[in-house]
Amino acid sequence: MWWSAFVALLVLVPVYGHAAPVAVVNSSFESPATPPDSFIVGAAPTGWTGYGNLNLSDRVIGVVNPNTTSLYVEPVPDGSNIGVTFLQDFSGDEAGMQQTLGATLEVFTHYTLSVEIGNMAVSPPPNDFDFGGFPGYRVELLAGGIVIAEDDNTLLPGEGRFLTSTIQLTVGQTHAQLGQPLGIRLVNLDAAPGVEVNFDDVRVDATALDCPELPVAGCKAASSARGTLSLAADAGDPDRNSAAWIWKGAATDVAELGTPPTTTTYLLCVYDGSGEAVLRLRAPAGGSCDGKDCWKALSSGFRYRDRSGSAGGLGSLQLKTGADGKASIKLKARGSALESPTLPLALTPQAAT
Fold this sequence. Notes:
Elements: E1 9-15, E2 20-22, E3 38-41, E4 49-52, E5 59-65, E6 82-87, E7 95-104, E8 109-119, E9 137-143, E10 146-151, E11 161-171, E12 181-188, E13 196-208, E14 222-232, E15 242-249, E16 265-271, E17 277-283, E18 288-289, E19 292-293, E20 295-298, E21 301-305, E22 314-320, E23 327-334
Antiparallel strand pairs: 1-16, 2-13, 3-5, 4-7, 5-6, 6-13, 7-12, 8-11, 8-13, 9-10, 9-12, 14-15, 15-23, 16-17, 18-19, 20-21, 21-22, 22-23
């Protein structure tokens, strides 16, 4: 069934929400305790289990304390130890470590998984191993053992350096893995010369997608007949579900838009005539989409683009500054992850931001 309608009120507000951390056991690999310039391998670090084909010799996981060595240019990101995934055979047979968390996948929640990815430098003799090169990595966010979001080797840390991998996922009203335990998997791809990938400071945050109660003070009104919302739902093919919103209204300058490439998250809230939020779409601050920055600063505002629609189906959001009637917002979303309001809607056509 296809349908389009105006709802009672549209609110798009910068959200400076506080994410709630999800507990990760031994997130910085400090257990087992390890003296500087030494390692413990052959068994998984506390709280973690092995993934893939491992043994007790040339395919191992564990921890290393690189302090007092030249293996890293700067101190490790957190604590003293870092996680080890050491695969010496360069066979393309990936392996690593994983952990099931105590939290479950929830509706209307935005998840962020951040992990420090390390490329151990070549160390001077005497040394039995050549750490030159980088075998590649993958970081996965799981629910019920199923991958729901991942970073598949998008970063290349320099020799002796770390880079931050960040994965973001927005869960709307439905998801195949709702209620399933969350998990993390850290993988050495063993796909290029280089034997080891290090991991550190594993962090998971969950932010509830709560729309504010109406009325919302300080909203900018749309110009007459310049705010439109269209929704489409196809019960037979949810991948064709879509939402589009165009708003043109009161004068807006760039300072009012915040800083979405770094700190300002946008949340679209669609309400029915009774004041109940029936659709939520979140454009998180920062992040990587399709291997590029999700947000781009433009001469007249900002643009968000995510072809994969990982944020609940949101594909694009453009914020444009301008005088009265020239300032505008354009949003498009599509796919089965898109929240679909229940029909019929109680309608009182209005629009505001």
